[in-house]
Specification:
The complex is a heterodimer of chains A (about 120) and B (about 110). Chain A is an all-beta fold and about 120 residues long. Chain A has no helices and eleven strands. In chain B, about 0% of the residues lie in helices and about 60% in strands. The chains are: A mainly beta (about 120), B mainly beta (about 110). At the A-B interface, strand 5, strand 9 and strand 10 of A face strand 4, strand 5, strand 9 and strand 10 of B.
Chain lengths: ~120, ~110
């Protein structure tokens, strides 16, 4: 089956630092990748959609300069939380999809981000 | 704007019971509907995907139905087990996934 690897699974860092999260599709080409955010006991909220080689499309209310997304290849997308602050602490989940084959989204295991 | 709601928000039952989880959505223009399972602190596990043209899908003890015209889906879990304890999320695909609020299920021995 399609596997999506997300790294790191857990990160703690000081306020003001930038944190990069990687999302890789291991056995398929991901034409599109999605980044979600989930607060405790809440559902997943889509942050942005990225197509390989194109700029990401951000959902309303998501700061594109705060959450930098790069999707430079068909197997890798990164989310960088710049100058992170405690309110950025959350659970971030990526998903990958091969839209050319009309496949469903496959999800990573998520990254727990804690900003002190 | 598409909104997805799940009822109940939480459910606690003894093992062996048959369960019904409900999902409703406000806009019937969807490509498909999916049910996911999420364990605490973990990512999502896809359980069932129902295309907009389908009425139901089955996998083992799980059965999901879809009534697109009324904006409803149900997930039926037969003979529940403690290992079924998790949060269950439904999501509608409108070119992007819109997730429901989730049902936290606890099955006790």
């Amino acid at each position: 089956g399609a596997v999506v690897s997300q790294h790191p699974s857990w990160v703690i860092c000081k306020s003001g630092t930038s944190v990069k999260i990687e999302c890789r599709s291991l056995d398929f080409q991901a034409t599109t990748m999605f980044w979600y955010r989930q607060f405790p006991k809440q559902s997943l909220m889509l942050m942005a959609t990225s197509n390989e080689g194109s700029k990401a499309t951000y959902e309303q209310g998501v700061e594109k300069d705060k959450f930098l997304i790069n999707h430079a290849s068909l197997t890798l997308s990164t989310l960088t939380v710049t100058s992170a602050h405690p309110e950025d602490s959350s659970f971030y989940i990526c998903s990958a999809q091969d839209r050319l084959l009309d496949q469903p989204q496959h999800f990573g295991d998520g990254t727990r981000l804690s900003i002190l | 704007k598409q909104e997805v709601t799940q009822i109940p928000a939480a459910l606690s039952v003894p093992e062996g019971e048959n369960l019904v989880l409900n999902c409703s959505f406000t806009d019937s223009a969807i490509y498909n509907l999916q049910w996911f399972r999420q364990d605490p602190g973990k990512g999502l596990t896809s359980l069932l995907l129902i295309q907009s043209s389908q009425r139901e899908q089955t996998s083992g003890r799980l059965n999901a139905s879809l009534d697109k015209s009324s904006g409803r889906s149900t997930l039926y879990i037969a003979a529940s087990q403690p290992g079924d304890s998790a949060t269950y999320l439904c999501a509608v695909d409108t070119d992007k996934l819109i997730f429901g609020t989730g049902t936290r299920l606890q099955v006790f021995p």
